Amino acid sequence: MKLSVVRVFLKAIMAGAVRCGAVFIIVLLIGCEPESDLIRRFTIYKGEHYSQPRLVESLQSNELMFDARFDETAMYDLGESQYQHSKNKLMGFSGCNQLHHENSARFTWQWVDNQLEIYAYCYVDNDRVEQYIGTVELYEINRYSIKLTDEEYIFTLANYPQVRVKRGTSECTKGIRYMLWPFFGGQLPAPHDVHIDIRMHY
Amino acid sequence: VNFALGSEKSVGGIHHMTALSVESKGKWGVGIFYQAKIDWNVSEGHEKMFRDPFYGILLQAPLAKCDKMSFLITLRGGLVNKDFVLVVPSLETRIKLFSRFSAVFGMGYRYSYPTGSVKLLVNLF
Hints:
The complex is a heterodimer of chains A (202) and B (125). Helices cover 16% and strands 39% of the residues of chain A. Chain A has 202 residues and is of the alpha+beta class. In chain A, the strands form 2 sheets. A 6-stranded antiparallel beta sheet of chain A has the order 1-11-2-7-8-9, with no helix packed on it. In chain A, a hairpin with a 3-residue loop joins β7 (141-148) and β8 (152-157). The radius of gyration of chain A is 22 Å and the shape is globular. The model of chain A is unreliable at 32-36 (pLDDT under 50). Chain B is mostly beta strands and 125 residues long. Chain B is built from no helices and 8 strands. The N and C termini of chain B lie close together (6 Å). Chain B has strands at residues 2-10, 13-23, 29-38, 50-65, 69-80, 84-96, 101-110, 113-123. Chain B is globular, with a radius of gyration of 15 Å. Chain A binds chain B through residues 7, 10-11, 14-15, 17-18, 21-22, 24-26, 28-29, 31, 35-36, 38, 55-62, 96, 173-177, 200, 202, and chain B through 7, 9-14, 52, 64, 66, 69, 71, 79-86, 93, 95, 105-107, 111-113, 116-118.
């Protein structure tokens, strides 16, 4: 008796779940919103290095492309020059089946001389390589791209000239390249909440 | 042996997929799959018609089942765009339509966002 009641109850729940799921999926599949038009706000809270939300994702093509927008929270004063010139990470990806301190490519940013500077920031066979790309305005949405070729990482920011960084020789060709998300520092954590809006292009 | 044909929608677009799998009576399964975005407006010799191809092995385990319906957890792992290893987990609801045909509704996780999928599954033999 009890078993049959439980079974009927479970069947009813399952039938309801199926109906809800079916409706959800139909709406999802025929939804007319523009694809990839999802802006995600990353926040690095005061005293933290890592941004929220914490996501796990791997690179799925040979180009990472996204739009990013900084607001007034990107302005900070850490006092000493060495801290102020410490690069904050925007986005990028690790080397093939490697940790990002072995091989990786990222955009980084810093607030120096009352402007927001963007850099290409790579680890190439454990050595750090930094190259200045340009400056961006607060509240302005800019397009960023890191292209992976057989020999180079090609960084593109808006209309600035491309920056090319030679890749390491220790990387494999097939494997996992995990995504690297916004991170404050450097050595010091965020002095206040920092917001970065990012829209990925897949 | 099952053959499936369907589509999956993610923030990256709609991927069409096909899969071939063997399944035990307890709904445990293993198989192979291929999925890609299809670009119908390809000019000859220029762009690829199949974009972001993702292929590999799929594993399936039952969560709950009754006569005409089952809940499954699946894991697809393989290569996307030839060089990039990817693992996609998903939950599927399978409803038996006719003797050999089933409809499958799924929800997964890709590009850090949920995905939705719908498939037609045929039990070949």
